[in-house]
Description:
By secondary structure, the protein is mainly α.
Amino acid sequence: xxSEFQKQKWIHFFNILDFNxxxxxxxxxxxxxxxxxCVLWGVRExxxxxxxxxxxxxxxxxxxxxxxxxxxxxxxxxxxVLLLADEFIGGDGKNFDEYISKFVGEIFSQFDINxxxxxxxxxxxxxxxxxxxxxxxxxxxxxxxxxxxxDMLSRDELVAAVRQYFIGDNKxxxxxxxxxxxxx
Length: 184
């Protein structure tokens, strides 16, 4: 069972993915995020890179809906995300570990622009901009997640942050800053 604190974090995540703020998450939200990335990076519609960004975001939608415990998902509502959270937190952890691995892989695929195996502050800021997360908290969030202080986020650091954000119940966990400030 989700604690109130965990529930707040999952609702914050839902609100981030509900890009058009209509109370449900659909593929259109993921396409809007992809379009945001293309504008951010100066990628023109029709270019090969544009197609790749669109495909990556559509694949993220597919991965996200596979985790939702219902068949043929066309839209995801907040209560479905909370049921998913309950399943992850109350389950054996195997499905959640797979989800974390895919989720972190997608972040690296989309935001590790120079393919060096790390997320820099600039790349992390791009994540905030693409998802319309309040940008003023991006540097502080990055610093909280950069456990070894090397000004880069490794996969291990991001996995730890994602795990803390989604299943942690300690308000002091650095991972709570994964998606910026939200009454932590």
